[in-house]
Description:
Blueprint: H1 2-26, H2 39-53, H3 59-64, H4 69-73, H5 80-96, H6 103-117
Helix pairs in contact: 1-2, 1-5, 1-6, 5-6
Amino acid sequence: MNEIHDQIGEEGISAFVAAFYRRVKEDDLIGPMYPADDWEGSEKRLRDFLIYRCGGSQRYLEERGHPRLRMRHFPFPIGEAERDRWLKLMGEALDESEVPEPSREMLDAFFAQTADFMRNR
Length: 121
Ligand code: HEM
């Protein structure tokens, strides 16, 4: 997915992650799962993870180690409804930020696959 970092850079990734968290904060289903006193931290973790995963800075690995995303999501009950809501909010965030093709298509596929993999209920 290095093409994504080449095409939209840290700036583009940070913009859609910010748009995503603006929605998560207001969301009745998945909003309450996130630590209410650390929105900035949550936003930074997803942003740095995606920057690393899309071929940019390795800051996430330096600060958080191996992602082990499925394990890190075990504490949160994620079924189909939570998966679908996460994907809906992310889709809206990508729309708002006008992420261009081919990055958009690659991100849609990556998120659909990863969100399904996080299901633990
Ligand atoms: C399927 C629905 C999902 C739900 C309900 C969910 C929920 C959460 C919650 C509540 C957290 C803790 C927030 C925090 O870090 O303070 C978290 C962390 C995180 N999530 Fe998700 N998530 C979902 C899917 C995804 C997907 C699809 C990705 C990546 C493509 C992702 C990437 C991350 C990352 C990188 C972290 C921080 C991990 C760490 O370093 O501790 N999540 N998620």
